[in-house]
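Data availability (excerpt). The following record was deposited with the supplementary files.
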Amino acid sequence: MTKNKQIIADRLAALREEMRRENLSAFIFPSSDPHMSEYVPSRWEGRKWISGFDGSAGTAVVTLHSAALWTDSRYFIAAEEQLEGTEFQLMRERVDSTPSIPEWISRELQDGDSTEIGVDGMCMPLAEAEDMKAALRHLGGITMRTNLDILERVWTDRPSVPLNPVEIHSMEFAGESVADKLSRIRHELLRLGAGGMLMTQLDDIAWTLNLRGSDVHCTPVFVAWLIVAEDTVVLFIKDEKLSPEVKDYLHNEGIAIDDYDNIIDALNSYGGYSLLIDPATTNCTLAQLRGNFNAVNAPSPVPAMKAVKNKVECDGYRNAMLRDGVALVKFLKWLDEAVPRGKETELSVSEKLRQLRSEQKLFRDISFDTIAGYEEHGAIVHYEPTPDTDVPLRPEGFLLLDSGAQYSDGTTDITRTIQLGPVSDLHRRVYTLVLKGHLSLQNLCFPRGAAGTQLDAVARTAMWREGMNFMHGTGHGVGSYLSVHEGPHQIRQEYRPAPMLEGMTVTDEPGLYLAGKFGVRIENVLLTVPYMTTEFGSFLRFEPLTLCPIDTQPILVDMLTVEERQCLNAYHEKVYQRLAPLLDSDEREWLAGKTEAI
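Predicted structure:
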């Protein structure tokens, strides 16, 4: 057994000792923190700590006799590799033969085991906890405790709550004052019948207060809670995080400050008549507190507000994409020259791209860990190279490169599949199918208010005709110097009712993945803009924000329609016209060749 696998075995033994003390037959470890974040500070990486699986999505469950981990198709290959040699059995979500968590727990309990299981109620949303409790009761009278943070007992070197400093996000980039945002939020709360709300999601809090932080890897947010009442607003945060300047700023905005750990006492003593609690994003511990207020269980109005970007934010995206495009062109030109020399690897090109972005004005960080997958690694949807998995790039095949940056005026997210040398006819056909889907969605016009689910099929039609598909979403919102993944709107097969409205950013990223061979994904960030108004209503279209050439080498041109070729040529003309003035003569010449009409 390797050292890491022995560490996991030792952790499971310590956990089970505590479970026996508490008379628990199983314990559930979600991927979330108390704020239901997608990416979490290290303190709440309990699922990673107990299982060794480091993907962003998944749930680990440990019984007294067995262990399993559920994750989605993005991570099947990576999870299988990371769990190998441990007790954990991989459970592939959305595969017909995979049991649900309650089904598996009920099956695994043995005679003599307790019928009580546990989960840290601070790390599971109310809606999910209630569904889990109901399913467990139905499957044999199993009960679920939510009042135990078992990691505090077994994770001896557990990180503390992060204490990184908070900074002001100026109106130059925010485009709307805190007062105006609070006014809009309160108006929506009245419409929903609530006098106030508990705000738990970190990007919502950062957006509302025009503040940013660095508590979460690649995401400029800070750990805090916010209670917005009819006449008051209280920020619950560790005092060490606030400089005198930020404290003065909050005071001038009318924001009171309390300690982060006082949130439970504050909710128990809340004096308002009603308080909105979003059951999908509020952890069940806080959501189940019942002070003197009436709980209004409803979706938070903030994500939908945040998703519609104001003019300053839209202009910020355009400026950020210009600088990002310059860095990408410099990188791709360098890559063309570097790979034949035979010294580059997945990790080295990831670092080179980060370095070139860091030279751009207003760069703050990358927006997620770069996915650089060469050939068969490109078939692992969320593969991230490590020293153990890193491979050299050869002048042949595909490199799938998914990356992004955080700039003070915008967040970027782009994927390009790059031909490094000779490829097979299968490479070309798959690449062209993905490109057809990408262009079809980018060129789409649609009625205002259509849901992303209604748009999704446009990006999949060509590959469906070939009996191919991909299991991840086609598009997600992108924050304005915030989270690279933002809702509530999404473009995906699963039903998502959130309407598409002008001012929303969304990615366009269809892909195809052939396990053990290669993967293809092409991604731009799009801005939803007005198109026309007719007797049938208002229609919208997409403006591509991302500025970077799409590799034309692998394209089977005969597979593209006239409209698809026109769309690609128009995009490349825009890329050249916007970026060329910012490049030197050699870079302009390179870009001219890469954006030549087909």
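Summary of structural features: The mean pLDDT is 96.
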